[in-house]
Amino acid sequence: MKRLVILSTVLWMSAPPCFAEPPAAELLEVTKIWDRAPHSAFTDLAYWKDQFVCAFREGRAHVSTDGTIRVLTSADGREWKSSASIGLDGYDLRDAGLSIAPHGRLMLIGGASPRPTDAAHSPTGSFVSFSDDAKTWTKPQIVAEPGRWLWRVTWHDGKAYGVLYEAGSDDRTSALLVSQDGVKYRTHVRKHLDDGRPTEAVLRFNDDDTMYCLQRRDGQAPSNTAMLGVSKPPYTDWDWHDLGHYFGGPNLIQMPSGDWIAAGRLVRDGNPKTVLAWLDVENKSLEPFLELPSGGDTSYPGLVLRDGVLWISYYSSHEGKANIYVAKVANIGGEPAPPNLASRAVPGPVHTVSISKPAPLNPAQSAACDRLKLDKNAIEILLAKPLYEFTEIEVDTYLRFLSATEPELRKRIIHLARRNIGQPYEIYLLGEMPFEPYDPQPLYCLGKSDCLVFAEHTYAMALSHNWPSFMKMLQRIRYRDGKIGVATRNHYTEADWNISNRWLVEDITEKLADGKAVTFEQKIDRAKFLKNRYKLDVDIPIEKHKDSFLRFEDIDRAKGALQDGDFVNIVRGTVNKDAPPSELSNTFGGSAWVGHVGMIVLGDYGEVHLIHSSEPRVREEPIDEYIARSTKNMKELDAKGKPRLLGFKFLRLRDRPFENLREVDGEDAPKVTLPDGSEAKF
After folding, report:
1. What's the pTM value of the predicted model, to 2 decimals?
2. How far is CA 104 from CA 99, 107, 135, 185, 472, in A?
3. Cβ–Cβ contacts within 10 Å for residue 619, how many?
């Protein structure tokens, strides 16, 4: 269990001067309470019988056949123990929801999907289970058949109310259901909301019996923003109001002041975060005010208010894989919600507090800081911060520190790659601006990556000792002979990047294949590519490129020889159905190309992992899991003539890349020039 104490951290949204600022909130503590499963997610939290109860799904992945519900309990919210694991044969159980039924039993409701294979899209229904002690639970009972998901229920005046939504069927509306016992439900409102593909919803009641519904929508923009529904008894007529924010995994709690706090996932610039927000039910507006330490695969918070402290359970993958966290927030709800929220501008970026507590430097690191005149407190903070949240100045400082404290290049590469786990993915990030107009993207991007950008930035940082050296090395890696320009960029991984960077990596595919390499040929028409993509006319001859790959079925041949930092080319292609099967043993009978890249990292016991940037974020996973995920529908893709995984090329990181580059560029390596031929200076 990992506990991090953050004292006197006050966060609030900046506001235009004509409006009052939202009340401050103090993030007291963040505790990682569960990280034992490959993927843990979709939480809820309750305080029941003098103990906290946290329930969530765990399984192999975000979507897998083995989903079960784990239940943790804690007397003080600090020390947690596992009390139960709830499963149902043939179903992936997910999205735990806790409530206290009128008879005093603890009720668990969640999704139940009869998923045939991992990552398969299958309809989801709902199950319920009850307990008297949080340890022993009744057998999960299906209460909504797959295709319509009753996501949460709220008890009020002896009745359970919940919103049922489409989860695999063609019906794009939601319905309001009610039950006397939490097991048998009847439809109260058949068309609760039918705009923007409504999904997850939470219901809450005010003292005057007004029912509020905070409803997520997953339609096409702009119909993908959350809705607030308001209804008076008998809850058959509803008024709906657009809140202007996409809000995933929503939850809602009323503070003693009468104000409402919403919690859920907010996405800014492609970066998901779990946030708290003021929900103004009078002005019908949602105002985010506190971002919890989170990122990547995250959200689904549970909320409990105890002695003036708001306890929030949630999950997040910003530390590499999806784990369960509990945060404590104080100093909220004591003051009225800020006035006139409906007329306020959309708030700017939400402030962030890193989840990791700064760790003290070891003696060697401390001595390096003294030698380099680096602020030790600043270095401790950077060591606890995701690399993709660094500023340029922080990158400069950190590279000075890392190059002085870690002499081994491979270790620097793996350190930097893992520090970027959780970095948001976005394709086509980089261009040549401000030096050329054809691709207006900038030369670098720290906050996001695609597969090649992630690899290039990692290698370049590991080979550098400050910001200027990183920028030069990055351009030397990205461009043929270090000449910045769209026509000299290494667009084709196998025909450009691998060839231009032979000083850095060496192709070892055929050596690893030991006679089993599959050869293939490509026609590389760079002139046509540049004309179609950038409207640029160049005279570049067509190249016939010959290459080889190791079939993914033969991956065991390579595993024992791979090393940290090796470059991986993922070869994809379409299979020629008319080619004799025997041809695949030596010459590929279809079209093949490198469609993705990553790097090798070794696990604690030498197991081979792939670390790569892929939708939605940078991740590390066993290469066997990547293969299984990429080939699950291989036969279907082949039948349709669509690309799929064929195999891998492996390139060994060279032992003396600096010396190799000096042999090519001279003593001033890396040599980088601008489009006009002048030397690049960063």
Report:
1. 0.53
2. 10, 9, 15, 19, 66
3. 22
